[in-house]
Amino acid sequence: MEVEKLKAIAKELRIDIIRMLAEAGSGHPGGSLSCIDILVTLFFHRLRHRPADPNWADRDRFVLSKGHCVPALYAVLAKAGYFSRDELLSLRKLNSRLQGHPDRHRLPGIEASTGSLGQGLSVALGMALAGKTSRKDYRVYCMISDGECQAGQIWEAAMAAPKFKLDNLCVLLDYNKIQLSGAVREIMNLEPLLNKWRAFNWNTLEIDGHDFHAIIQALDDAERAKERPTLILCHTTKGKGVSFMEGKWEWHGKAPNREEGERAIQEILAQN
Amino acid sequence: MGAKATRVAFGEALVRLGAENPDIVVLDADLSKSTMTEHFAAKYPDRFFDMGIAEGNLVGTGAGMALAGKIPFICSFACFVVGRFEQIRMSVGYSRANVKIVGTHSGIGIGEDGYSQMALEDIALMRSLPNMVVIQPVDAVETERAVEYIVRHQGPVFLRLMRQKVDDINPPDYQFHFGKGTVLRPGKEITLMATGGVVGNTLKAAKILEQKGVDAQVVNIHTVKPLDREIVARIALSQGRIVTVEDHGITGGLGSAVSEVVSELGRGRIKRVAVEDFAESGDPEGLYQKYGLSQDNIAAKALELLQD
Q1: Which DSSP letter does residue A243 get?
Q2: Which of A25, A69, A215, B133 could be disulfide-bonded to A41 (CB atoms 3.0-4.6 Å)?
Q3: What is the pLDDT of residues B180-231, one digit of tens each?
Q4: CA-closest candidate to residue A104, choices A151, A64, A158
Q5: Going by DSSP bridges, is the β-strand pair A169-175/A140-145 parallel, antiparallel, or unpaired?
Q6: Cβ of A121 and B60 within 8 Å?
Q7: Which of A119, A125, A154, A166 to mutate to test the interface with B (most CBs of B within 10 A)?
């Protein structure tokens, strides 16, 4: 039942993402659609949080390091009650709190200002380290992209988290295998990717990032790991749920026009 | 006169303040013996984190700790930590993270290590971020008072420190007034406005000028940003002549900050004494001579400005 609930929310939020992007006329549908199932599972199944009290000191934290996929996060935050869903359509417009990339200063629920790839994991690490230092039991989740793993700072953070035994840190890698201008393996190959994280002494898991059972199971497993941070390699499909976007690098950073948006929404509605 | 490096005074202040404030945490990048955070590390091992030679992650981790309520001091040589400008601009500045960035070994005054370890662009970079405060104390007592202030200040700060020993300029009971220039020596004809390790040479330059019959005022600017516009404007409108002196590149530092105020006023004239090239290895005194930060050159620039 839990999984059915999550599925229904994800379907609804995929539509929100398409509406937002079509209205904004710019933004990143591909990676937003590839990570939405994971975000839904986190926010509606796992995170200890209080949308009405976003600065609650003991809350679990979620950092979206791949900041360009913020439409997915806005959809989740609005659905959870951090702000009104009407506000979603202000994405990327002048005076909006919904910046093109996340701005924690403007919008409650955003934990870190990101968008310059490679930085969010370090910020999440700092939050986890502060939690350990203060003997607080909150957990920190961070979503990174595959292309982002080309940034050196990711590996600086990957080295540091095991040193400090941050078992309160869980990284979700949205492995959709496509970046702005092409296939990750052609732009700058990352394989063997899971072995790299293993070699850095992380607890590693590998799942289908669109399988809610698998996501829940992996999050459970991550919580059981002691004295080590966890990296969950989530195999996903770029543009998941919209046939003409799936697996296409062209839809990394291009918004659908009205007609395309309508077509995408009809397709999503027709799915189980 | 005692002589102590500001980085040493910083290390001592951290140990003292660490006892009073449990939220203070210190992060370093394998330079704690040089940045003097090793004393804090020895006293409070649970609140000290060596991040290794990975300054991008140093900045980001500090930001995350600040966003979780800590008061992190992230420390390295100024060129290495400020060199991670993109991380500072996003994860600290734009994020409004309460991070205290401490850069030691600033300027050519470090001497023999040469240009790769000399921060000469750090003030320019940090000054460009809207919410970043830039403080450069002149001596040990000012460093101690400044660090006390920085702990209380809500928001990001860049504290620029020196490797070399500097003479005590201020009295032991000195009070630190954030954002205010301090007159170290009164004078009526021209003002020498300096920051950091070159304030000593600037005071000596005022003596040279005195011997030549010129009554020069010396002002110490410990808070480079926000700059004390009031004192700059007062001098520009009264004396009309200011020489700025700094161990930093000629672009974007104190000289630029003062020039901005003077040019907006449309009154007063300025000459900038600063480093105009990449510099090199050598003894600090010799470097100050070669790159124009000697008392003789400061005095000569003041005379040029008076004769213009």
Answers
A1: T
A2: A215
A3: 999 999 999 999 999 999 999 999 999 999 999 999 999 999 999 999 999 9
A4: A64
A5: parallel
A6: yes
A7: A119
CB atoms within 10 A of CB B250: 18
- Burial status of residue A80 (CB atoms within 10 A of its CB: 0-12, 13-18, 19 or more): middle
- Name the residue with tokens 């976003």: A54
Q: With pLDDT > 70 as the criterion, what percentage of chain B qualifies?
A: 99
Query: How many domains does one find in chain A?
Result: 1
In whole angstroms, give the CA distance from residue B280 to residue B251. Answer: 18
- Which fold, B3-167? Rossmann fold (3.40.50)
Is B77 within 8 Å of B104 (Cβ atoms)?
Answer: yes
Radius of gyration of chain A measured on its C-alpha atoms: 17
- Locate A234 and state its tokens: 């989530």
Domains B3-167 and B182-307 share a fold: yes
B103 touches chain A (CB under 8 A): no
Give alpha helix (H) positions in chain B: 6-20, 32-35, 38-43, 55-67, 78-82, 85-87, 122-127, 140-152, 199-211, 229-238, 254-265, 284-290, 295-307
Residues of B whose CB is below 8 A from A103: 94
- Give the three-class secondary structure for B27: strand
